[in-house]
Predict the 3D structure of the following.
Amino acid sequence: MGFPNVGKSTLVSVVSEAKPNIANYHFTTLTPVLGVVSLGEGRSFVMADIPGLIEGAWEGRGLGHQFLRHVERCRMLVHIVDVAGSEGRDPREDFRVINQELKKFNPELAGRPMLVAGNKCDLAEEEQVEDFRRFVEDQGYRFFPIIAPINEQVDALLNAISAELAQLPPILRYQPEPVELQPIEELNRDRVNVTRQEGIYTVEAPWLERIMLSVDFDDSESLQYFQRVLIQTGVIDALREAGCDEGDTVDIYGLEFDFVE
């Protein structure tokens, strides 16, 4: 888990056969990607690439509720941080924000076993890495510097995960939660505003943001419902009128996807 674009998908792709979408923009991964990590001698575990969390996730921002529910299903957490601050953020603040989001959503998550991986070490000064290591270890967490794309120093992290999992109780089982979806014809629709900035088409409609909080993007039926909402309420038409073409990036309240005709 971690902020968008810190290297979660890249890590899963290099340690397993999973093939998540990887690109240099936020929310490339819209649903969790599972990969089986095999360490030999009968040792293996499943790693889940949880889509990027952002500040306000516990309130539903950026599809936070859907993402955080997946975190609840994990026995332990690996918090990945861009230790180089390559997107202009402070790694310490990133770490604090994500942990606070977990605590606000479910206090039990804050106490779940967690390892910290400092990714993008090749973009950071050695002093930056060591400074962040001290910051993490002072809070009682184990720190692992890695360069995920080239699998640099990743083995130490995987062995630590395996050893930790061997000491933990079995995974909790959850029953499916039924999702109640409002009939499209009953939606209280206001005007849909579409703006374009730096090649990204942003959709704004308060009623649509409320709908997104009720959509389970891991459930095919719920996802199809959301697609019908976009079509039947004129969102797709508004995007076309704004000049959105095949392959352009669309942002709807933190959810980014490629426009497909």
Observations:
- Confidence is low (pLDDT under 50) at residues 20-30, 54-65.
